[in-house]
């Protein structure tokens, strides 16, 4: 049996396209845009001594983050209540991470298309690293998407409220057939709000490597209820959606797993699903099986051709010997 080379290449190309890649993008990347005069850029060489929020740089992604604040105190400078930003990307899913902090944090209102999510940390931890601020899956892979956000005053007595943005993860490689939602997808706006726990945060160090990993996401457990966690709770409101979105931090791709980073130093977010690993493992096993079949079929083809040539040569030699024998016997007759 002979397999055309084009068919073999098609199989291998189809296998390669099934691999999903998670790319970690630092807040210092141009994909992020921070609007307003009340953003501070914190880097290892440019700390912010005047900032009230002072997280541990070793627990952040690349040692950098953006500190934005809004101020409603009397005598606040103009524009003190106008702080916003955006993140632009191409991919099938997006996850935006920051550092949650008790008391000081405002409401962060995210929008992507017609989907709206509001993030606010209500726990008691001073700093919660790798906190999932926003996520969305099931996006078109061939389109450019932009997540926008604006800071609004939370219902607390704090006059100056601050938010810390750290990094994002973009999933690319295939259209996500499955997605995770924080409520049912409907053509009508959702009127319910759910309490979803913020991520349990363990420092994972600053390491980076490059690899393709699966990021399929399992179903959300936060459909209008409360999920228990060690990181406190995060309030989320979802509006009308043309695609599926979630804020469940338990199913975000992990910064501890190998990712492709867009900065020299990277660290790693929280918990990849076992279903995604199974999908990726299945793709790898399928590729190995296909490659093995191609090799076996090629060897079988070569063996059959060699056998045919050997048989032909053997028969030819016997015919030649018979012809010579008859030629020697004919004079005697």
UniProtKB/TrEMBL annotation:
Region: Disordered, residue numbers: 47-78, 176-261
Keyword Transmembrane: yes
Name under which the protein is recorded: Uncharacterized protein
Keyword field contains Protein biosynthesis: no
Signal sequence, start to end: 1-18
Species whose genome carries this gene: Mycena venus
Keywords: Membrane, Signal, Transmembrane, Transmembrane helix
Positions with biased composition (Polar residues): 178-199, 224-261
